[in-house]
Amino acid sequence: MSSTNTPRALRAILASALVALVGGGCIALGYDFDRLPPIPCNRAEDCPGEDTFCGTRACAEGACTIVDVQPAGVKPVGQPLGDCQDVTCDGAGHAISKPAPEQLPTDGSECNAGQCVEGTPLLVPVEQGKSCGKDLALTCDGRGACMGCTMPSQCGDDGPCVKWACTDGACIRAYVPAGMVVADTVVGDCMAEACDGAGNLDQVPSPADAADDGDSCTDDICTGAGTEHANAANGTACGVGCQSCTEGVCGDCSPGFVCEGMACVSVGEQPVGAVCTTSSDCGTGFCVQGVCCESACDDKCMGCVKTATGMPNGVCAPALDGNNPGGRCAGADTCVGGVCRCENNVQDGNELKVDCGGSCSPCKGTWVCNGDAGCGEPIEKSCGLVCINCDDNTEACFQTQNQECFIGEQPKSFTGGSVYKFPTDYCKRMTCICQ
User: What angle do CA 347, 348, 352 make, to 5 degrees?
Assistant: First the structure.
């Protein structure tokens, strides 16, 4: 039976915590509780720093420590590309970053060359006049832009993770946000193809891609090793008529259920983990996500079914990454590291900025016109012997500049009148971008 769940994967990749130099030119990210004097605590949230992929803060016997430690050399999933750094776990719960000269930065333009200088990414414009564009028919302006286009197709071919635009003669390549799933080429492998934020496809966990074994008495759950087929909750309907699952086997109505009409129905207070319809069906008084739960389990990113948590049915536990138990995360949001992804202080999924954009709430920005030039310095573009639609809309540009907008809105263009320059006319143009 198919289900929508995923293994525990991404937590925050790099925490904004203590940064300390260690040997070999590396940087250790995160607090080292073993080297510091014991830090007293009552709960994990009392401990400084943030949870990372390499380890999770915990409070044990009144002192801060790190648990869920990843082995040394494991690379955090989803670490940024092109940042001149390589991040690995050190085996003690810390993320170690070291210079990686092969991780060259890129903005997708042939007119900028990426360099790594002592672990710092730099983009350096190539020389003016170098050929660029799809058929090398355009030229670099020496400031990092490929100029001379009149339509996006001159710049390059669109792909699943990259889209081209031509704005005021300049080629602009926009990348689909990291984490956006665009294909699932192998059904049932718990993986899918998603954009990596740099125009490429990457393999990512897909909670909805568990292999279906065709057995209605099993829950198909994606784990780190693939698909696990776990017993469905006792009382789950199966077969034809009055049949239900008991310990993963389809047969007569489960204990505590009787046949009424053509279905098995509850006749009393069911134990933890059994199927329920209302709270009165459960001995605990809590029916959560269709099973009797040990508690109300109503916090965000807490679930009570194995398909959402990986724990036995009826046990209230943090949700596996990619789940949204009870729909308590807003919209199409999911849980990552035990919190709703749109609230985890990390730019992930299809977010355009941290915790906003994509399936999260829209990101607020500001209209910026003509870069640093503003509306007072329109760009002059040749428009032939007769300029059309070159009315002076400078005032409209000023009314737009610095106003609030939402990231992802289409740029706004304004004309600022025309000017004659022998042997042709020029149209003054202004472009405002939400950023």
Answer: 60
Q: Is 264 helix (H, G, I), strand (E, B) or coil?
A: strand
Q: How many CB atoms lie within 10 A of CB 340?
A: 21
What is the spatial distance between Cα 329 and Cα 115, in angstroms, rounded to a whole number? 40
Tell which residue, 165, 196, 171, 198, has the closest CA to residue 182.
Answer: 196
Helices (H), 319-378: none
Read off the tokens for 250: 């389809």
Helix (H/G/I), strand (E/B), else coil: 208: strand
Instruction: Report the chain's mean pLDDT, rounded to a whole number.
Output: 80
What global pTM score does this model have? 0.52
Give per-residue pLDDT as tens, 29-76.
Answer: 555 565 567 888 998 888 887 777 788 888 988 888 888 888 888 877
Sorted by where each begins, the domain ranges of the chain are 19-99, 112-175, 233-328, 364-434
**Backbone φ/ψ region at 224: left (φ over 0), alpha (ψ -120 to 50), beta:** alpha
The residues, any chain, with a CB within 8 Å of residue 195's CB and separated by 6 or more, are: 160, 161, 175, 176, 177, 178, 179, 180, 182, 201, 202
Sheet strands side by side (includes 189-195) = 181-183, 189-195, 201-210
Strand partners, 201: 195
The answer to whether the beta carbons of residues 216 and 232 sit under 8 Å apart is yes
From the list 112, 220, 232, the residue with the least C-alpha distance to 172 is 112
Token pair for 310: 């990986």
423: preceding bond cis by omega (within 30 degrees): yes
Structure token pair of residue 45: 């949230």
Torsion of CA 352, 353, 354, 355, to 10 degrees: -50
pLDDT in tens, 131-171: 999 889 999 988 788 889 988 889 988 888 888 888 878 88
Angstrom distance (rounded) from CA 290 to CA 320: 18
